[in-house]
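explain this:
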Amino acid sequence: MNILRAFFIYLSQHRGMQRLVLRNPVARRASRRFVAGETLAEGVAAVQALNRLGIHASLNYLGEKTTSPAEAEEAAGRYLEILGAITRERLDCNLSIKLSQLGLAADAALAERLLRRILEAAGRDGIFVRIDMEESALVDPTLALWHRVWEEGHTNVGLVIQSYLRRSEQDVAALVGTGVRIRLVKGAYLEPRAVAYPRKADVDAAYRRLTEVLLRRGTYPAIATHDPQMIAHARAVAAANGIGPERYEFQMIYGVRRDLQSALVRQGYHVRVYVPFGEQWYPYFMRRLGERPANVFFLLRSVFAEWR
C-alpha cells in the first residue's frame, strides 16, 4: 500500500482530525466533490442529475460501526427512507448498505433482522440492494449473513468483493455459481500483509483475474474501477468471449472521472455511479483523498482558492 493512501486511512480514523475537518467550511465544501450532501433530498437530486445523463446510480447513507441497537435501528430507518424515495421519485437507482451500520460487529442477530426488513421492503418495489464489503474482519460474518437471507429467497441482494484481499479468488469461486451479482473493487481499508496484497501490481493482477472469472461465469457483474487499464481489460475479455455490454456494467464513485463515465455511456456501456450522502461523511472523504494524488490536489486547490 502506498504511503499516501495509508496516511489518509489513518486520518479517516483520527477523531481529533475529524472534529477539525467537520468545523472547517473549506473542507465541507470540498467534500461535496465526492459526497452528494448531508440530506436525502440532496442525494436524490444528485441521482436525478445522473439519470438525466443516462447514468444509473446507487445511493448510500454514510456511516459505519454503530455502537448501540438504537443507532442500528436508526440506520435501518434511513435505508427504508431511501427505498421510499427511490420508488416515489422513480429513480434509476439501487441501494448500497453497510452491515456494520446495522450492528453486525456487536449484534449479528439484530443486523440480520434489520437486513431482512430492508430486503423485504426493497423486494416489494423491485429495488436491488448491494451489501458493501468492509474490513477483512467482517468478511466472514457478511458472507454468512448474506448466505442465510439468500437461501430464504431474498435474491434481490448482491455482494462486493475486494481484489486486494488474498482470499477473494477463493470467495469468488464459491460465489460465482450461486447467481449473486458481485461488484468487484480493489479495496480501501488498511489491512496487514498476511491478509491483503501490499503491492499495487499484485492488487491489479488479482483484479484482472477476478474480472475474467466474473465476466465469463458471473451474473451481471459490476466492474467498479476508474482505472482505464482495468476498463480496457474488461472490455477486451468481454469482446473475446462474445459478452455484450448488456451483461455487465461499469461502476464508479460520485465525483471521480466524470469524463470517463460520460464517455462509456456514449459508447453504449452501462455505467452506475455510487452516490453517498449523510452527516458522517468524514471517513469516506478521507479514504477518497487517499486513493489518488489528484484528489489531494483538488482539496489543496480549494483551500488555496479560499485563502486567496
About this structure: Residues 28 and 75 are 22 Å apart (CA to CA).
